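Fold this sequence, please.
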Amino acid sequence: MELDLEEKLKSAFPNDEFLPVPKGVEGGDIWQKIKYKDKTVGSILWETKRTKAFSNSWITKLKDDSAKISASESIIISQTLPEGIQSFDRKDGVWITTYEHAV
């Protein structure tokens, strides 16, 4: 799912830069630097989860990892969403959605 998502993101946002997630940032899968007129204007740390149960601990971990690289946004893509989220929403400062709604 991670590699497929990265390819879709690269296709949808061809001007953005996609970098390897640095060591010490174990939670993130994709690091997207958002470009506008050759300037970086923000970044997103994406994490993909393919499990049957959602864990709120993922939110805290991704927020911590995002802070390490000064990411503007954090997004969890999961097959299973937390209770109360149908397609996408923001919880504790992290966007959460399914693969189908990611891009």
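The chain has a mean pLDDT of 93. The two ends are 13 Å apart (CA to CA).
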